[in-house]
Design goal:
This is HTH cro/C1-type domain-containing protein. It comes from Pseudoalteromonas haloplanktis. GO terms for molecular function: DNA binding. Keywords: DNA-binding. By secondary structure, the protein is an alpha+beta fold. The protein has a single domain, classed as lambda repressor-like DNA-binding domains (434 Repressor (Amino-terminal Domain)). Helix content is about 45%, strand content about 25%. The protein contains five helices and two strands. Strands 1-2 form a two-stranded antiparallel ribbon. Helix 2 crosses helix 3. The longest helix has 10 residues. It is elongated and about 50 Å long. The termini are close together.
């Protein structure tokens, strides 16, 4: 067996929006200059934002980038 690490980026945006007076996806999108659909895709981990957008999101919530986004290893087994 060979073990490999694949990395995944997750985020806490939905929770942070809720804690921020239940901010809507549209309000966040307007604040960072993207569409609501983009925010929805980022929240669902279907799209990784550009570094610029990631920083804008962290600024909106007044948090360090690593508290908004998490970069985690996901181990995989290869049966070679």
């Amino acid at each position: 067996m060979i073990f490999m690490s694949e990395y995944v980026i997750t985020n806490s945006i939905r929770t942070l929006r809720f804690l921020r007076d239940e901010m809507t996806q549209k309000q966040l999108a307007d604040a960072i200059g993207v569409t609501r659909q983009t925010v929805m895709a980022i929240e669902a981990n279907k799209y990784s934002p550009s570094l610029e957008v990631a920083f804008k999101i962290s600024i909106v919530f007044n948090l360090p980038l690593e508290e908004v986004f998490q970069y985690k290893a996901k181990d995989m087994q290869l049966g070679l």
